[in-house]
Amino acid sequence: MEDAAKRELFEETGLIADEIEFFYINSGPEVHYVYPNGDEVSNIEIVYLCRKYHGALKRQKSEIAELRFFCAAEIDPEMISPPIRPVLKYYIENVCH
To answer: How many distinct structural domains can be found in the chain?
Structure first.
């Protein structure tokens, strides 16, 4: 899982993880979601934090409109995908204190 997390970080941001740490498993009924097009998913997400990295931000144009760093408290939960909202909530409650 760690290798997949590092690979995804690089593919989507251009950043290379020097260290990652396990953070959270997100699953269950609260992450069941039906997209506007009718696609239905039941997510299981294994989430890692990366505080040590190198490289320069470079977005994957086919998937990402913008990349930038910001405080998690600046995120409006209504503006992100509903299945990821429990992760953001847990992060804010347990890391951003």
So the answer is: 1
List pLDDT tens digits, range 11-34.
989 999 999 999 999 999 888 889
Q: Two tokens at 7?
A: 């690979």
- The answer on pLDDT for 97 being more than 80 is no
Give the strand pairing for 16-26 and 32-34: unpaired
Contact 9, 15 (CB under 8 A): yes
User: For 17, phi and psi rounded to 5 degrees?
Assistant: -75, 125
Give pTM, 2 decimals: 0.80
Query: Which CATH number belongs to the domain containing residue 66 in this structure?
Result: 3.90.79.10
Provide the residue range defining the domain that includes 43: 2-94
28's torsion region: left (phi>0), alpha (psi -120 to 50) or beta?
Answer: left
